Fold Quinol monooxygenase YgiN.
Amino acid sequence: MLKVIAQDFIQPEAVEIVLPFYRELVELTRQEPLCIAYDLFIDQKDPGHFIFIETWPDRAALDIHCATEHFTRLVPLINAHQRQDGTFILMDEFSG
Amino acid sequence: MLKVIAQDFIQPEAVEIVLPFYRELVELTRQEPLCIAYDLFIDQKDPGHFIFIETWPDRAALDIHCATEHFTRLVPLINAHQRQDGTFILMDEFSG
């Protein structure tokens, strides 16, 4: 099981523009057969800070996601309004 | 519903020391009556980078968690081995 946190930082004046792109990205990604969870959150202190929390069976499934039509079409439309580069963390579950 | 990402950065040589503290913190926090989810992950690229993904009903529940015996006892034991300050993000669900 692969857990991912992906963070985007959008220009304040462009937040309204990117909302429909995020909405479509979430909706279509959740329809991917390998998607376990794909949830989007907004920082309470920063309305331009968008945070995805994602669950995939493995890295191959994430790579398939990143090559989908919806990802390759929508992510550049979102990134055109970035104020800084996005970040992502690939994580393993803590086993103690 | 309140989602939280809390990140700790532990000195590489102290990772083995903090593991039992994290194990106990996860176990006891999950027993809190208001805890919806409390999951711990480790950055695949950095074994000293620990990431909690938490779900609470509201901010009041998070404040109660931060005042528990296990939190106030274990977090300082973990933080004694930090290499930099931890971070946390309080988030709302994206509603589109």
Observations:
- The beta strands of chain A are 2-10, 37-43, 49-56, 82-93.
- The longest strand of chain A covers residues 82-93.
- The interface with chain B takes residues 3, 5, 19-20, 22-23, 26, 39-45, 49-51, 53, 89-94, 96 of chain A (CB under 8 Å).
- The helical segments of chain A are 15-30, 59-66, 69-79.
